[in-house]
Amino acid sequence: MVRPLPPPGPRPAAAPAAAASKREPQPARPVPVTPRPSGLDVFVERPSGELNVCAPPPPAPSPPPVLGPRAAPPGPPVVVVMDGALDDRHQALAGSMWTNAAEVAGDGVDNDGNGVVDDVHGFNVGLGGGDLAAGKSLEHGTHVAGIALGKDGGAAARGATAGQALVMGVSGMYDGCDMLTNFERAVDYVVMMKARGANVRVANASFGGSYPKEADQARWKAAAQKLAAADILFCVATDNGSGSNLNGKPDMPGNLGLPNQVTVTATDKANDKLATFASFGDQVVHIAAVGENVSSAAPGGGTRVMSGTSMATPAVAGAAAAAFALNPALTAAQVRDLILQTAQQDADLEGKVSTGGKLDVPSLLEAVRRTLPSAAPSPEEAGETGRGWGELGDWGDWGWDWFDQLAA
């Protein structure tokens, strides 16, 4: 059961109607402007969420580790998007949200007895309940979810996970308590729901910050290790540090170094060098993916372009979901290794990420195909193109070029 949370908060109230009496105009409140690298349409800092610090929650038991051969879990792989608010009614997301079949939408009752009311498509960890769209960073969370699903609001380009994966929203990461406490509660919810039958395979964390205190680092690690014990791949964004080296830095959760973890930095729009805003570190950052001028879902419908390591990370999470869809018997550690082993080498990334390379989706899925008990020949081996892999659909349906089109 999920631990007690702060009382739910309301959605932002609508602006009041203009008063009948004339009022003196008030001076505009200055709006802080975050400097961003030139040439980017919209640059977003990786959220750090260090407000409203709460006392550490009481510990929840860790799940038993996954040992030995496992039966392939049923249903499409589920990617957990831990982030701010998320527009789960967006046309690009609405048909691809994980659904808690034991919960009745909108009845105000905790039907499945898991401690969360109306968690039909996930859990608002900061504000409580299942309203994923309430709280801060609605644009960030919606954009990240769209990338993880390989969808950008209905445009022609489709990602490797389009139609192959579902998203469980864990929103409200920057509301209520501090981000570390919210992360601990988010992990407990995700692990609990996997134990109840949700086919959770990947968790995406496009957030983080500097945590120099050893006690805080231990809490981050203990929570993330629950994901490892539950056989969930953990994809994490490194900092937007404008070229800073994070080796030896207390950047959490990116620098935890767990065997189920992939820490991601961003390449530029052309996908041929490290983005100017991105951090690196060959001891702590594993791989890069396109994170500059990425088009994805925007709240209320349509799309917008954003840049940041937050945009690169769900591309890796989505590729991992495609790998699990192709071979559900793979473990989180195995998919992590395949992602890193198939990275495309890039001279600009040498010495900056541990693989020296960037995400290569076709090579990843070809490597996954070779892990199947009776792997069918690839189109190249068969001398054909356009042949599918059974029920996974036609070759073209996987949208191999989508990750190259992220910035188009």
List the helices and strands and how they pair.
Blueprint: E1 78-82, E2 122-124, H1 138-148, E3 166-171, H2 179-195, E4 200-205, E5 209-210, H3 214-229, E6 233-237, E7 251-252, E8 261-267, E9 287-290, E10 294-297, E11 303-306, H4 309-326, H5 332-341, E12 344-345, E13 357-358, H6 361-369, H7 379-382
Parallel strand pairs: 1-3, 1-4, 2-3, 4-6, 6-8, 8-9
Antiparallel strand pairs: 5-7, 10-11, 12-13
Helix pairs in contact: 1-4, 2-3, 4-6, 5-6
Report on this model:
This protein is of the alpha/beta class. The protein has one domain: Peptidase S8/S53 domain (Rossmann fold). Helix content is 21%, strand content 13%. The strands form 4 sheets. A 7-stranded parallel beta sheet has the order 2-3-1-4-6-8-9, sandwiched between helices. Helix 2 (179-195) runs parallel beside helix 3 (214-229) and helix 5 packs across helix 6 (361-369). It is globular, with a radius of gyration of 21 Å. It starts with 77 loop residues before the first strand and ends in a 26-residue tail after the last helix.
Put the structure in a nutshell:
The chain has 408 residues and is of the alpha/beta class. The chain has helices spanning 138-148, 179-195, 214-229, 309-326, 332-341, 361-369, 379-382, and strands at 78-82, 122-124, 166-171, 200-205, 209-210, 233-237, 251-252, 261-267, 287-290, 294-297, 303-306, 344-345, 357-358.
Largest sheet: 7 strands, parallel
What's the CATH topology name? Rossmann fold
What structural category arises from helix and sheet content?
alpha/beta
List low-pLDDT spans.
2-38, 152-158, 384-408
CATH superfamily: Peptidase S8/S53 domain
Q: What is the number of domains?
A: 1
